[in-house]
């Protein structure tokens, strides 16, 4: 029998949090100088709380129950999915099997019978895993990594720099999956934390992640049911950093799950089927699914690396596509589908080039379902809604646009941990769309899904940055756009002369803004005026350049490092009145998202002679 498989020792929780106080006002001041931030109206997000030892005391710790095999020619793998009442990971005589649970070998999907039994065909290199059902939770190891799988690779990995998988020998005589009853996954209200691109290249960057997003998650206790899903580029090519990743997930207050990205590869693998062997050995399956509430989460492996060049493509491969088809077929129609992959299915930024190869097949499999798609990879935030259309998508989508919401999740690392160092223990790292680093949460009630983005070091109230796009700024941007990290600072960026008012916009970068969002501006307490979105997503091309850029983000990144922000799908602008008097003026901006939540911030600027 195999007890706690894959666990790593970790220091006590109190020694692992790194940063104490979180400087909430700093992130607001960084991207909206002299702006005051107000809490969102109509917000349904749970309040952050000090989770301390709650999860650590109650977490279901254990592993898959493996009976060593003796038959090298065995053609099937069998076992039981059972309710582990005493949390021992072993099935005792009084612990019942659980019927109707999906189990897979990575291609076929079967469901357990009335006694919790299953049987699946054996493949030479496979991962057998259980789909966590609603009302139950799989065990986690000492680092909070979910344990719901068994890798079968009789001879082990070929020689790999980072080790890969050890030889497993014959198929186990029995492969049993323990579950514990869980009110956290039963409730129809779920909160799923989604982290993209942690992408630590060294221990220093791991400490940035710890002081930022992981410190925020350590203070929350709302995701114990759905857990935290990290959607690829968990590390940055050095796969020994998976140990540091586990050290970070040990601070969480819920189960951690992972899917691989293009920087999680065994680049020295001689064959595609071993590209992610070290990832599998350290973190789990390449792809899998699990249920929480009335949501079915599907985690996909979307990076294909040929093993002969440094290039990679986006795709699922025939085996995974077959699994996806079988997995979705086993999901009741009254469930919402959360489809997550490292690379987005489609995206605004690379709308004419980046796409998953089997996109139409994926859309066909999901037709008629309630779906939301998640991706990371590009280190920016995008909120694309049903019906949105860019010129680069027309060959695939026609004039109908997207069939469901596609979210690109802002990176935990932001713009690869670049930029000015902050007292909070991490760099500014503003991304190429102007969004600061953070974590996405899906708030789910029954099958209704509401997304929210929490900027690292903030409580969720700060959702936009305000600035002035003046002729003087555009000249500065054009002259310095190739000097990210070394450009001279622009003096008095919130000042505009009277004769340039007619060519000046007040800009609002609404980080989770989308089609259906509105931005209204009151100048000096006057009547609200609606700002115009720079990208309508009605089939146009991507608009790039100084007049479509985010001044506030570029004023930070061009002198100090980060992303060049010259295009974004969530920027609104309002031309300032040409008759404003000389002196100080205040603009109050209220942004309303597609779910009706309001966020209000203000900025003071000056008109000069």
UniProtKB/TrEMBL annotation:
Pfam family, one: MetallophosN
Domain Calcineurin-like phosphoesterase: 214-380
Name the UniProt record assigns to this protein: Calcineurin-like phosphoesterase C-terminal domain-containing protein
UniProt xrefs under Gene3D superfamilies: 3.60.21.10, Immunoglobulins
Organism: Promicromonospora vindobonensis
All copies of domain Calcineurin-like phosphoesterase N-terminal, residue ranges: 94-152
Domain Calcineurin-like phosphoesterase C-terminal: 408-599
InterPro entries: Calcineurin-like_PHP, CarboxyPept-like_regulatory, Ig-like_fold, Metallo-depent_PP-like, Metallophos_C, Metallophos_N, STPP_CPPED1
């Amino acid at each position: 029998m195999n007890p706690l498989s894959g666990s790593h020792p970790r220091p006590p929780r109190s020694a692992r949090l790194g940063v104490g106080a979180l400087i909430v006002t700093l992130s607001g001041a960084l991207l909206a100088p002299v702006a005051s931030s107000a809490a969102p109206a109509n917000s349904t997000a749970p309040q952050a709380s000090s989770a301390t030892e709650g999860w650590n005391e109650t977490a279901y710790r254990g592993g898959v129950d493996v009976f060593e095999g003796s038959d090298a020619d065995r053609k099937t793998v069998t076992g039981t999915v059972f309710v582990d009442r005493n949390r021992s990971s072993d099935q005792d005589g009084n612990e019942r099997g659980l019927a109707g649970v999906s189990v897979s070998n990575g291609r076929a999907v079967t469901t357990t019978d009335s006694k919790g039994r299953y049987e699946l065909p054996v493949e030479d290199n496979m991962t057998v895993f259980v789909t966590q059902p609603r009302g139950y939770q799989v065990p986690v190891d000492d680092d909070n990594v979910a344990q719901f799988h068994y890798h079968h690779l009789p001879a082990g990995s070929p020689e790999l720099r980072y080790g890969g998988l050890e030889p497993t020998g014959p198929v186990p005589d029995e492969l049993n999956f323990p579950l514990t009853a869980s009110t956290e996954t039963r409730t129809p209200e779920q909160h799923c934390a989604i982290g993209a691109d942690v992408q630590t290249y060294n221990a220093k960057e791991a400490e940035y992640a710890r002081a930022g997003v992981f410190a925020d998650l350590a203070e929350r206790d709302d995701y114990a049911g759905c857990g935290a899903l990290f959607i690829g580029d968990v590390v940055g090519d050095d796969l020994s950093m998976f140990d540091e990743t586990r050290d970070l997930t040990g601070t969480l207050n819920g189960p951690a799950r992972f899917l691989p990205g293009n920087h999680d590869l065994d680049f020295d693998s001689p064959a595609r089927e071993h590209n992610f062997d070290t990832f599998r050995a350290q973190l789990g399956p390449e792809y899998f699914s699990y249920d929480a509430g009335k949501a079915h989460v599907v985690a996909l492996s979307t990076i294909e690396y040929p093993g002969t060049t440094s290039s990679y493509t986006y795709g699922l491969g025939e085996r995974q596509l077959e699994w996806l088809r079988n997995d979705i077929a086993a999901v009741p129609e009254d469930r919402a589908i959360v489809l997550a992959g490292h690379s987005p299915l489609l995206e605004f930024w690379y709308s004419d080039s980046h796409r998953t190869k089997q996109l139409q097949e994926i859309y066909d499999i999901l037709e008629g379902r309630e779906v939301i798609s998640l991706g990371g990879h590009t280190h920016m935030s995008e909120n694309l809604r049903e019906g949105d259309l860019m010129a680069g998508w027309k060959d695939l989508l026609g004039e109908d646009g997207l069939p469901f919401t596609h979210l690109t999740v802002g990176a935990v690392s932001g713009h690869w941990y670049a930029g000015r160092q902050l007292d909070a223990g991490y760099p500014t790292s503003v991304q190429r769309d102007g969004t600061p680093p953070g974590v996405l949460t899906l708030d789910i009630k029954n099958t209704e899904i509401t997304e929210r983005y929490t900027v690292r070091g903030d409580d969720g109230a700060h959702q936009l940055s305000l600035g002035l796009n003046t002729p003087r700024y555009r000249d500065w941007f054009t002259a310095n756009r190739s000097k990210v990290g070394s450009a001279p600072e622009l003096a008095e960026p919130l000042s505009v002369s009277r004769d340039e008012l007619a060519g000046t916009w007040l800009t609002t970068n609404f980080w989770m803004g989308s089609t259906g969002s509105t931005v209204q501006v009151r100048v000096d307490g006057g009547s609200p005026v609606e700002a115009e979105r720079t990208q309508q997503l009605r089939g146009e091309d991507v608009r790039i350049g100084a007049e479509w850029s985010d001044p506030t983000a570029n004023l930070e990144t061009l002198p100090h490092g980060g992303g060049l922000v010259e295009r974004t799908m969530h920027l609104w602008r309002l031309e300032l009145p040409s008759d404003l008097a000389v002196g100080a003026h205040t603009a109050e901006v209220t942004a309303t998202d597609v779910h009706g939540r309001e966020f209000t911030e203000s900025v003071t600027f000056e008109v000069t002679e």
